[in-house]
Fold these 2 entries.
Entry 1:
Amino acid sequence: MTTVKPILLAEDNPRDAELALAAMEEHHIADKVVVCHDGAEALDYLYCRGNFATRQQGNPVVVFLDLKMPKVDGLEVLRTIKNDVNLKPIPVVMLTSSREERDLAQSYALGANAYVVKPVEFHQFITAVKELGIFWGVINEPPPEGSDKIK
Amino acid sequence: MESVTQERPSTPVPIRSEAVPDSNPEPTPKTSGPMAWFTHWSIERRVLAGFGLVFAGIVVISAVSYRNTAVLIENSRLDTKSHELIQLLGSVGEALDAAESGHRRYLVTGDESYLKSYRTVVEQMPEYLRYLRGLTNEGPEQQARVPTLEQLIARQLGAEAEAIAQRKEHGYEAVRHLALSGAAKKELEGIHRLMTEFDSAEQRVLHARVAQSAGSMKNTIVLLGLGAVLQLILLASVYFLIHHDVTERRRVATELQRRGELLEAANKELEAFSYSVSHDLRAPLRHIDGYAALLSKAAGEALNDKARRYLQTISDSAKQMGQLIDDLLVFSRMGRQDMLRTTINLDQLVKTVLHDLRLDLQGRTISWTMHPLPNVSGDPAMLRQVFLNLISNALKFTATKAETKIEIGSVSRNSGEAEVFVRDNGVGFDMQYVNKLFGVFQRLHRTDEFEGTGIGLANVRRIIHRHGGRTWAEGAPNQGATFYFSLPLARSLR
């Protein structure tokens, strides 16, 4: 872990985003987080275009994806990621309020790596986000750059 | 079907009460008139009675017509016989006349060629007489005349034979007196008289028979006409009933389809609604709790105890509402989720539920009474939820008791269905609130007495209803409660 890879958080609700950042701040991983406010922006980031045309190259270490977002929703973003050979290796964690069976089934069918329901209780929420951030951002070894070319 | 038939003012089978025999002993104390008992009958019974009467009518008409026709055929046979008899009598009379005049000519001339017709008569008479006996064997009056006729004929022919013999032997002179008047003048006259009697008697019988045939023919035509009318009524009724039934079925099918579509649309709407509840309603709650926590942290020491308590209340309320929403979503999902149907060993199921509840069981002294449970047909996850809710409730509402007793068992009152119960010796409930027990968010105790949102029993009821079973409860304050539910047994699995 020499280069600091960012965590991409796609969350349309600024309060949820702020609470998530507050949770990660407690564990000093908040500065790694890039927040996008809808699916279109998240895709712009991943493809280095629009506002993110000049960002440093490379995939985020993990994508936290809300399901219900304006313009392009979470499932659409997930489908795009998993259908692109360059983006496919990125771990995607669905972070959502929905416990609906249909959403769970669709997300896993499209290749989501994890599915987390946001708890109402703040302490649980903090614990969940913290653990997710630590697991995917620190403990989990991300795929090497260009891993898709090995195949 | 029944209610619709009753809507029609005219019953398809127009049977009047007069047509029904008055033998029905059913007393009619309230309503007056002979129709009273009839109106008490169900539509099916009336239709059946109507069909029965029409059918009986047709059978009677057919029987009478058959008998009439048989009589007509018999009469026509007898008519033929009568005509033959009359003809035969004529022929015999002529033949005897011919023989008589022939034999007289012979007596005068001695020319044997005149005996030809006489000889023919002698030769053929036995045949004629046999024929005559055959034709008269069904009428005793005519039959009685036959021997007399036979005698007379025999005497005539005998006398003539004697005269012929004398003429041959002794010549014309010996029979001269006979040649003029004939040998059997007297007999021949008698024969003719008898034959006239024969003839007129037969004509009389014939006329009577013709009149009878005409009468029964007329009768038969009328009856057949009546039968045709009855059959038309029967056919029309059947057509009417079938037509009515088919129309009704079509209407019901259309109606069912329409309702099904409405229901499906309503379900879709409900699904969208609960989806948005699940997603959108929980976000602000999360924010309330989250920001209250952040505020508490940021203000830190600056807050006094009162302010801290306020913040805590905000946070608790948000959590409670979150719990309510979650419960409601689970409840709604229970109603929509696809159901499995497998055979479930309830004993095994209860064991796993108790294993799941082991944390709640810690530190409690409970005397369990477990009766063997049957195998049922249903969805394992849903029925697990049922036992989890009922046993959790039993544990919850016995927590204040010194000694907890929980009993689980089943009764089988009818085949194909099992009734399972969970009994505790807890705080119980007043039976006057029994109807509220299974309602959504209905609670019979204050929140500070026993925690919970009041969704557990509502879920139990919903799950059991989806399995085609029933739920009910018995209890008394401070004397425990028993919760029952019924489920289809495993062998009725289709």
Entry 2:
Amino acid sequence: MGSLFGLLGTMGSALQAQQAAMDVTGNNVSNANTPGYVRQTAVLQAVPATADSDGGVTVSSIQRAFNSFTYGQVLVQTGLQGSADARNSALTEAQATIAPTGGGAVGDSINSFFSAVQTLSASPSDPSARSAVLQQATQVAQAFSTTASGLQQQQSGILTQAQGLATTLNTTLSQIASLNGQIAQANAAGQSPADLEDQRDQLVTTVAQGMGASVVTDSTGAVTLFSGNTVLVSGSNASTVSVGIDANNAMQVNVQRPGGSTIDITQNVTDGTLGGLRESRDTDIAQSLQSLDQLAYSFSNAVNAVQSSGYGLDGQTGRNLFTAPTQVQGAAASMAVDPSVAGQPNNIATASDPNDLPGGNDTAVALAQVANQSLGSMGTATSAFAAITAQIGNAAAAASTDSATRAETVTQAQNLNSSASGVSLEEESVNLTKFQQAFEAASRVLQAADSLLSDFMTTMSTN
Amino acid sequence: MRITETMTLNTVLQSESVAAQRMNQLSNEASSGLAVSQPSDDPAAYASIVTRTAQISTVEGRSEAVKVAAGDLNLAESTLDQAGTLMSEASQVAIEASNGTMTASDRANAATQVNSILQQMVGLANTKGSSGYLFGGTKNNTPPFDSSGNFSGNDTVTQVEVADGVLAVSNANGATAFTAEGGTNVFSALQGLATALTSNDLTGIQSSVQTLSSAQTQLISARVDAGESAARLTSAGDAMTSALTQMQISLGDVQDADSATTFSNLTASQNAYQQALQVNKQVLSMALSVSN
């Protein structure tokens, strides 16, 4: 049976519910720009009329407009973008080391060297032509070793960067694990874990950016985080990621389980910054270094073969122009002018017969012809260097295109996710008006009931 | 589809960033004038630039070497020409002196003249070019002839590369020009004449005339050889110069930006960027009016 007092109670619930809904709207508006914030909705429910109450309204729950599909897409695309961006910036740097736009590359120095040798072939006894050849030979050795050590430094820089990233990721992983615990607790206690979930899901995105991630939510509300084909977070337990190098100087990624067992996930780390860093360091840059070493090795040997067969102005033979490389690996970084010739332009061999000194030039001519000589399967020294630039150029171009594409697909995925879960200010202002009007109407009803009651009270007290 | 402000802003931001990148790339191209300045711009074109640059550098190097060698050979040619003239002077003296009317003192005077010719001849034979003595073969760091014309050089022929695998002679052969290797020793011929003149030996003088004439022929033929070698190098040098021009043009085709296209693309990209900025501004003002 309805009563004025019952009406007071009903209106009280209405004021409370509309107020709560406005609170949620306010919260949505304030977090419109908070990364990872998922729009919330107050679910209003009619209270059935009973003997004790006349009904009314209540907020049954605060719902989070979370869409696991769009969110999963954001994780996938973020992982791919992280990898593409990391590779792109690493390769842009590697490319600038191999082929600096200001010149000074290995190819230029080889050209200048052979030009100087041509000049020497016309004036084999000219001290200035000899000095020029020696100087250009030094330049060639320097260009090789500067380029190779530049690439090696970049490799070690990438390793340091990956190790720093692993440290950050480990902090994030343990934060996710601890949030998982809190969310499960809140759910068990019947409290809304929405803000905790937002926070955690945002952290998961950071992991996706770092090394790729996918998640599965369990019944307690906690997520299991997978990355590199293994579980990194399960419930409130987080594994530890560590980055090191193996015997071949390749990057190695290990995961240590909370229990203590360690597994090697290196080959599975392809996504995220870590995946991009690994690919650029151990595939692209490693390949450039290897080709550069091979070129330095073959070039030194080809030049030495000609040099050591000829005679210097002092009548001595058997001297190398470049220190003979012992092996292909490291040949570029350690390239140098041989000590027997360094600082001694007269020791450069120009004639194949000591009787032809000092005007004999056949060795110098043969040395100049090394420019067109095929060095094994690589072709000439210049075409081998051209191939090195093409290799890093192709990789850098592909990485740059990939990075641009990923920027778009990430935006796309974020937009889809935002469409499902983001805050729309228009929508919120409409909602605000709606709740505000309901609140005002409820207060009017309350006022009316109040005035009826006070009329009744006055009548009662005057009688 | 539900549209949120974040989506709108994301989209505008993305298109603005793409437009900015494109504008940046094109302004790099326009300011450097290079369509390909780093390998990733066009890897195949960059590799072709590297090999073309090397070819150009090889041809430039050869061209320098050829210039030096051609210069020396031209100098050798004119030196041998002067030597031929000197020789004809000596022949003239010999012919005059072989006339029976000449007195002993006239012949003694003529001997002095021949000795001076001999010294001049030694001077010519010891002419230095840009890379050492022209007629010493590969022993070009010391004068190949002493004051009496004894030869200490050799007959080694040097060559320079004028094209891939093609070599051309780059020195004059002093041994065949001046020494018995060419048939007649020029200095012995002159000395023989001087001795015959001094000793007033008419038969000796008369036989010198023959020797001197063959020496002169030898010098002329050496001059022709040097001239031919010089001409071969010069024409190789000319061929290289025109090849260089062609190679630089084709390098430019690969490397250089087409300025008309670059500038019109740059203008288009600037417009696109400004448009993106404009849209961004409008979207932002809409977002602000919603919250007011």
